[in-house]
Design brief:
Fic-like fold, Arc Repressor Mutant, subunit A, 5 strands, 15 helices, three-stranded antiparallel β-sheet
């Protein structure tokens, strides 16, 4: 459709066109090859679910997955932070070292809240607006309309490009955008005879195409994939990441999104996203087993030495929180500082913890093997 306006950065008037997608179909004609890939993705989700049920502590996969997703989904939008710095910033006495880490933390907070809500709430525009507000508040440059459907025209392309150089121009911020979003919300909550993995792929495309917010659409849209799989029972717990896989194929991911708009053919996109889900599920199954082996081995070492008390409690926390300080141990387990430091020192002697700061004050200790396993997802 034709659009016209003025670029607020340059004051130049433009006449161009935007893409307004058709509502998502209730039935979709996919090739046999696509259905096969979708079936393999659903099967892999089942294997991940089985792996999770065998874990004594579900945090062995849920917490590491969310940290990795927080870093990777932000990197897809050009916000980079190292996993150890993100983990360190969770500690009570530490602040994010960089604005980027603060923004990644905001995604982490947003996702945790979303997973809690998804237990008994449908996915709605109201929910997503609340989540986007949390994400925007952690941004270096929060948009003025945080938590609201955008009221200005946006474009997708290189930074500071004009509308004529844009890769894609989403719908204008008028009744057509709102109508598209209302139809999207109805579709994702409707009782349709489509596999969960196919629905999640199609819903993600439509969300990105509509681009409802001034900022954060990619991160919120990828979170919706996991929320949909949680809501339909394909995923019983938020133990899956998808952004690390997409980050390695960033250009291909963006090209596939654009191609659906250009051709109307769902097959390449659905195959691409189902492949992402399948391969990430299998990677998580492997990491879950390795984390389980790590905890089993650590527990055996502690038992051999007849170490218990705070040392055992601290060791059990290292999957969910693999970066600690003496003060954190004191506050978490209600022990004295000498007791806390003794537990840390013993785990350092075992090679479980490594001092990360190289300083004499505010020392930070990390379970490097756990962090390496999480980073491999």
């Amino acid at each position: 459709m034709d659009i016209a306006g003025t670029d607020p950065r340059t004051g130049d008037h433009f006449d161009y066109y935007a893409f307004v997608p058709e509502p998502l179909p209730t039935e979709v004609n996919l090739s046999q090859a696509t259905w096969t890939v979708a079936s393999l993705a659903a099967e892999a989700l089942g294997r991940l679910n089985q792996a999770c049920t065998q874990l004594r502590n579900p945090g062995l996969l849920i917490a590491p997955s969310l940290f990795k997703e927080s870093v990777s989904t932000s990197a897809l939008e050009g916000t980079y932070g190292a996993l150890p710095e993100v983990l360190e910033a969770r500690l009570p006495q530490f602040s994010p070292r960089t604005p980027e880490v603060k923004e990644i933390q905001a995604y982490h907070e947003m996702a945790r809240l979303a997973f809690d809500w998804a237990v008994d709430r449908p996915i709605t525009l109201g929910m997503l607006k609340d989540l986007q507000r949390i994400l925007a508040e952690g941004s270096k440059k929060p948009p003025p309309d945080a938590g609201q459907i955008r009221t200005r025209q946006v474009i997708i392309g290189p930074e500071n490009c004009t509308v004529h150089d844009a890769r894609f121009v989403p719908p204008p911020p008028d009744d057509r955008l709102q109508a598209g979003l209302d139809a999207w919300q109805e579709w994702i909550n409707a009782d349709l005879q489509l596999p969960g993995v196919v629905r999640a792929a199609m819903a993600h495309y439509q969300f990105e195409c509509l681009h409802p917010f001034s900022d954060g659409n990619g991160r919120v849209g990828r979170l919706v994939i996991i929320l949909m799989l949680l809501r339909d029972g394909s995923l019983p717990a938020p133990s899956l990441t998808i952004s690390p896989w997409l980050l390695k194929r960033r250009e291909e991911y963006q090209d596939h999104l654009l191609r659906v708009s250009q051709t109307g053919d769902w097959n390449p996109w659905v195959q691409f996203m189902c492949t992402a889900l399948r391969e990430q599920c299998l990677a998580h199954v492997e990491v879950a087993q390795r984390l389980l082996d790590w905890t089993t081995n650590l527990r055996a070492q502690l038992d051999d030495r007849r170490w218990g008390g705070v040392i055992t409690k601290l060791a059990e926390q290292l999957i969910d929180w693999p970066v600690v300080t003496g003060r954190w141990v004191v506050e978490t387990f209600n022990v004295t500082l000498p007791t806390a430091q003794n537990a840390i020192d013993r785990l350092m002697n075992l090679g479980v913890l490594t001092e990360m700061t190289g300083s004499n004050y505010n020392r930070v200790y990390g379970a490097k093997e756990v962090m390496d396993l999480v980073d491999s997802l």
